[in-house]
Design brief:
It holds the Pfam family Glyco_hydro_9. This protein has 503 residues and is mainly alpha-helical. The chain contains 18 helices and five strands. Helix content is 46%, strand content 4%. Helix 3 runs antiparallel to helix 5, helix 3 packs parallel to helix 18 and helix 7 packs parallel to helix 9. The chain is globular.
Length: 503
């Protein structure tokens, strides 16, 4: 479980299984050899098999699915789970995604995962098509939106979580065999949750644009629900603390409201959303993009509209530039720390979400600026579009193996990839359906066992090394070894761009 923090500074500143038998060379080892050969040249020209990394990043999201799995599932060790979810509230809440290495379904990070996947599907549609992954991305988005339609089935009510997190964290068990309480959490007019309602609205609005050409009636359903959820979020303001201490919103809900309104405006071009963006919404200069803080994403999203002629969005260009100036390593206004090896480091615990998030935003913004022949100005330092996309590449390359330890932080990709992800489903062997697990013994049986997971969690990007580039592949070190859906969803667009445009 990734627990975020939010620091105020001024205004919001701041495979397949590998064999260990002798003389056996696995596909992953061959991939590692290829990476070594292709990188035995200056690092600026280092080239990885980004298409393979993209494919595997989507496989991880498939491994996170809850519910009745399709017959064409590509993760053989996963099976149906959570088939009674929602029963305690007399509502069907089967489906959706587990957020990380546990068996809880949290609404806020799940919605952010879908929104960012949809953004990549829209902005890098051609690249995903060329890489052969567009349909898999659409399927990943729809797996989330099918669930969101269930969670928003009742007016002025949104089901935002399934699973008791305390009980869940007291049992190390695969979701297929869990017997922990599937408690249902809900927001309504009396118990508001503006962040979650608005983020779910953003996810549905963005997804409606992705799916409009392939299933127009479904797209319309998503858009109608997004409109209703945004209205609910705006009229019943309040922070929902039910997902704390695991997903506490430190940044407040103004960023989610602006984020949702922006996606709704792009999906509808309705004046009501334009008015909210330009007259009612609050924005701020920030130096991170995450499941908790969306301002930088909004600013880059709306800068494209500004540079295309929407003059009232001018302020968002200045704020998007401020984000770049706060993060770019050569900026005189830089505020973000990097490890000695060059990895962005904001905080321990799923830190790689900031790496992939920055890579996505720098990729998209670089391409937007290139399209409009524009640049970023940071004091007396000017940054070209290619400077931004090069930094995005450097951050992704770090995760794939260009780092001081020369190891990959994506499971099943490259050299010395993680073998012990902090993940219940991957670390516990498949058990017969209906098997009762002794929770008291489960940690000794599977969690504390210092050995590779029996199931390879292909494509998972783990939490990553500390700010000094230190890393040990030990399951119980959850800040470094736990993967999260939003780490991977943020990587998809950046990897798609690299798969097609990096030579």
């Amino acid at each position: 479980m990734a627990n975020g923090e939010f620091n105020l500074l001024g205004n919001f500143n701041w495979l397949q299984k590998s064999d260990s038998e002798p003389n056996y060379i696995s596909p992953e080892m061959w991939a590692g050899v290829g990476i070594i050969l292709s990188c035995f040249i200056p690092v600026a020209h280092c080239h990885y098999d980004y298409k393979d990394a993209l494919t595997k990043s989507l496989l991880f999201l498939e491994a996170q699915r809850s519910g009745k799995l399709p017959a064409n599932g590509r993760v053989p060790w996963r099976a149906d789970s959570g088939l009674l979810d929602g029963q305690l509230a007399n509502v069907d809440l089967v489906g959706g995604y587990y957020d990380a290495g546990d068996n809880v379904k949290y609404g806020l990070p799940m919605a952010f995962t879908v929104t960012t996947l949809a953004w990549s599907a829209l902005f890098y549609e051609a690249e995903l098509q060329a890489a052969g992954e567009l349909e898999n991305v659409r399927a990943a988005i729809r797996w989330g939106t099918d669930y969101f339609l269930k969670t928003a089935s009742r007016k002025n009510k949104l089901y935002v979580q399934v699973g008791d997190p305390v009980a869940d964290h007291e049992c190390w068990v695969r979701p297929e065999n869990m017997e922990t309480p599937r408690t249902v959490y809900v927001i309504d007019e009396n118990t508001p949750g503006t962040e979650i309602a608005a983020e779910t609205a953003a996810a549905m609005a963005a997804a409606s644009m992705v799916l409009r050409q392939v299933d127009h009636p479904y797209s319309r359903r998503l858009l109608n629900k997004a409109k209703m959820l945004f209205k609910f979020a705006k009229e019943h303001k309040g922070t929902y603390d039910g997902e704390c201490p695991f997903y506490c919103s430190y940044s407040g809900y103004n960023d989610e409201l602006l984020w949702a309104a922006s996606w709704l405006y792009l999906a509808t071009h309705k004046g009501i959303y334009f008015k909210f963006i330009t007259e009612e919404a609050i924005s701020a200069n920030v130096d991170e993009f995450s499941w908790d803080l969306k301002y930088a994403g909004v600013q880059i999203l709306l800068t494209d509209s500004y540079l295309s002629g929407e003059s009232k969005f001018e302020n968002f260009k200045a704020q998007a530039d401020s984000f770049v100036c706060s993060v770019h390593p050569q900026s005189p206004y830089r505020q973000i720390n990097s490890s000695p090896g060059g990895m962005i480091h904001l905080r321990d615990g799923a830190n790689t979400q900031y790496v992939t998030g920055t890579a996505l935003l720098f990729s998209i913004y670089g391409d937007i600026l290139a399209k409009h022949n524009n640049v970023v100005q940071c004091g007396n330092q000017q940054f070209s579009p290619s400077s931004l996309t090069a930094y995005a590449k450097q951050q992704m390359d770090y995760l794939l193996g260009e780092n001081p330890l020369k190891r990959s932080y994506m499971v099943g990709f490259g050299r010395q990839s993680p073998t012990q992800p902090h993940h219940r489903g991957a670390s516990a062997p498949p058990l017969p359906s209906g098997t009762s697990v002794n929770c008291a013994m489960s940690f000794a049986q599977w969690f504390q066992k210092n050995a590779p997971n029996p199931n390879v969690l292909t494509g998972a990007i783990v939490g990553g090394p500390d700010r000094f580039d230190n890393f040990a592949d030990l399951r119980w070190d959850s800040p470094k070894l736990e993967p999260c859906t939003y780490i991977n969803s943020l990587a998809v667009g950046a990897l798609a761009r690299l798969a097609v445009h990096s030579f």
